Every structure is written in structure tokens, then in C-alpha cells.
Amino acid sequence: MKNTLLASVSFLLLIAGSAAADQQEFPAKLAGQAILPANTMVPAPADAPEFLKHSGKFTTADRKRTEVLGTVPGKDGARVTDLKLPFDGQPIQGFSGIKTMEDGTFWTLSDNGFGSKANSSDAMLFLHQLKFDWATGKVEVVKNLFLSDPDKKSPFPIVLEGAEKRYLTGADFDIESIQPVADGFWLGEEFGPYLLKFDTEGRLTDVFSASVDGKPVLSPDNPLLSVPANPTTKMQAFNLKRSGGFEGLAMSKDGSKLYGLLEGALYQDDGKMESVDGHTAIRVIEFDTASKSWTGRSWLYPFEDKGVSIGDFNMLDDSTALVIERDNGAGTKDKACADPKQPKPDCFEAPAELKRIYKIEFNDANVGKAVRKIGYIDLLNIKDPDNKKKAGTKDGVYDMPFVTIENVDRVDATHIVVGNDNNLPFSAGRAVDKADDNEFSLLEVGELLNAK
To answer: What global pTM score does this model have?
Structure first.
């Protein structure tokens, strides 16, 4: 009996140990930081319509046009930030995906503009080639590549449908993730959601609607959905929350496969979200780049108890990848509002609690099942013994208390790059009353990268 009991206890401990190993926290040390100021603007291209020379003209609560520059305060809930709309030019902000290049630069992208289709028709979609000087903390914008649809590849009318130069805007697509390739760029998009292909000049060449298990994946922002003319007619069905499309897009090392990671969980026929062992789970969907089609294979990524979204997704090798998982909090607990139900302009309503980068594994053996979470680093507790940070709140520690951290990729054998999406001018997580800058950090995480 005693031996049986000991064996049972040993077995339970083994199970517990395995679960703990899957959730092991690994150390992270700040090796460098570079900051692009929040108020970084560029002029619209010379051949762009006058309408695009200023951006943010439709960002009031009622979406009424505002032409006078700098008259609409940026707000993060009850807190007023230090920047005002509309802007003179196009802001370089909202970085939502990143890829390390062999020449030492990084490709990234600005998302749809100001947070929704309704307020972003004058926000141009563009990609950015960046260079970071980790010693000085400076960010150099090497190149901006504005996106357009000259060959009318979009399956729906775009904002600038009748313009001579058909530039794309944040009311057309919400681009969130990037994979540069020899002949252009693959981008993950949220409104459709769609998988988009652009050539090296930023011209749209292909649009692929998302599907899982042979069924279309539809967001309420899908431009092909329509409200019925008769109120007694049933609405068209969609199975994804707003802003739940392709937040992450990874590519296999040989370039033959893309893996789109949804930000939100799919709703099943019974109205419940997909889940794994009681945890809400989102889909990783496989796409074949040669046949330009979805393979029908997918995996499930289960959230932690406080996790609600992913931020970015990049492969490390054929079966492991990095994923940013986060909550919707912003700011630090030392400046939390006394009563979260009564937010004030001088405190954080819901401070950040879960901001992590996970190393995961998925392969042929677990198709249709949950990915394996190998371990993580805590972005709220990055060691900074050498005082490398240019911004932060604690001595000896660098933290990223932003609502949206949406950039991660490996730089070399022991380092990764991480960056935030500052949602200009609406997010203020570093300070209660200042729009967040674009912060990029070089982290030493060799133990995480080598974890099995």
C-alpha cells in the first residue's frame, strides 16, 4: 500500500513538474534600447491626393470631420495625452510586426491608423525599413514604402477607388504582421481577415480570404458583409470578434509555408469560443506559398488566465516560434487608480499584469491540437544591471507596461528584438499623461531560445 501510494504521489509530481516545465519563466536582460519619438511624421507622397496630406480628421467620438490641425486631444480612457489631432502629414506609429534582415536592418509596418475603419480613411498604409543604434538609442527610418492597389486586386471598392494613384488606407485594410520575401511582402490583415501579398514597390498583387476547416473566417469588419435591407431578415453570420484577425504571421525557414495566427478565438456553432482545457484558444492556420492556398491544417494556441490577445509571431526553426501574449492592461501598479470603476486622469485604470513572450512548439504530430508552450520571459521584469534603458520605471529593471506590444523576432543566437505599438495618440502606458513613444528593445534571452 505504501509503495503504491508513493508511486501515485511520484506520478502526480511528475505531472505537476511537466506542467510547471511548460510554464517555466526564463531570464531576460536588456542589451540595448532605441526610441522613435511619438510625434514622428512624414509628408504624404507628392502624388497622393490632398485628402491624405493631413491625417486623423475623423477621430472625434461622433466621427465628424475636423479640419483644423491640433484641435482634438488624444485620450487614453479618462487620461489626456500630450498630442492632438489632426496631424500635418502621416504618423510613423502603430508598429505591429517586425522582421530581422540579413543587412542589419528591420522591416516593420504601421497598422490601420487610428484604431478602426471608421476613423482611418485618411491614414495611409505603409511599411518601414528601420535601423537601430543600440548605443545611442536612436532609430533611423531608412525607407518608407507606401502601399497601393493600382491593378484593382482588392475584392471591394477602396477609399481612393477613383483616384489616379490608388493608395491604400486604414479604412481598406488593417495590416498587422509582415514577412518580407524576395519578390515583396506577405502581410497579415484583420478586417477580412485577409492574407495580402505586395510586390517590392508596395503594389497589391494578391488577396486571400481566411478559412479554417473549409469554412470562411469572417470578422464583422469584413467589407463583403452587408446589413440586410429588411430588419426582419437574419444578419449575415460572422465568427470572429472585431480586431480578431491575423495579428501574427510567421514563415517557415524554407519559405514554403506561412502561419497566420488569429488574435481572437473563433466562435463555434453553439456560440461559444474555441477553447483548450477551459482556456480560450486561437488558431494558427497554415498557408502554402507555392499553391497559394490554405492547406487545411491548423493548431490551437491557448491563452493564460489573464491573456486576451497575441501581439506578434515569428518562427525560430521548423517547429518552434516566438509569440507575444498579453492582457489589455497598461501602466504600472504604483500609479493605479484607487477605484478602477472610477478612472481619473492622473492614474492607470487597469495596470499591466501579463506581458510575455512565449516559445512554443507545433508540428505534424499535433495538427489540430494545442501548441506546446515551452516557456516564457516576463516583459514587465527585464533585468537591466548595466543601465541600458532609455525609458523605464524601476532601478535595475526595464519594463514594457504597454497595452499593445506587437513586435518580436530573433536577432541572433542569444538576442531578440521587441517593440510596442503606441496607438498614437491614444496609448499612454509609460506615463499617465504622455503619448507612448515607439520603443524597441534588444533583449538577451539565450536560455529561452535554447529551451527544449
So the answer is: 0.93
